[in-house]
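Example is below:
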Amino acid sequence: MLRYRPGGESMSKMVVSDACLKRITSFLASDPRFDHTRRALAEGGIDLDGSSASLTAFATRLLLINEREYVTAYAAHNEKISGRTVWMKYDDGFIVLGMGDLEAFKAMQSWLYQLDLEESGDWVAQVINRAAHDLAEMIIAALPGYDELPWG
């Protein structure tokens, strides 16, 4: 299954790296502007309390969603994936410190790009999509000259 980027460059689905999953999880678990995202996840039974166990569980959940989409896309080709588990701990450098908004946004977009949000219906994917949208708005609003532009 090919997906297209703006400009017509094609790209196929893939299973994202552990580093990408770490960036998403670290950002959502630690950025105070995303308390609403953590609350939405908690309502569904996912508690990003900052413990190694909660971070690993959430990153593994993201991995499993990504793998399910990948397997669905390539089932006709009988391709198999490793079924790896993401093992992350604080002492292994789980939390990505000093990550900027653009890096976090790119990680979320990389993960979301692998999904068919309308088809999957996964509520976690919808929460991540909303967080990415919110972050994009924050990034745009911080651009030089944005506040000087007329409203409406």
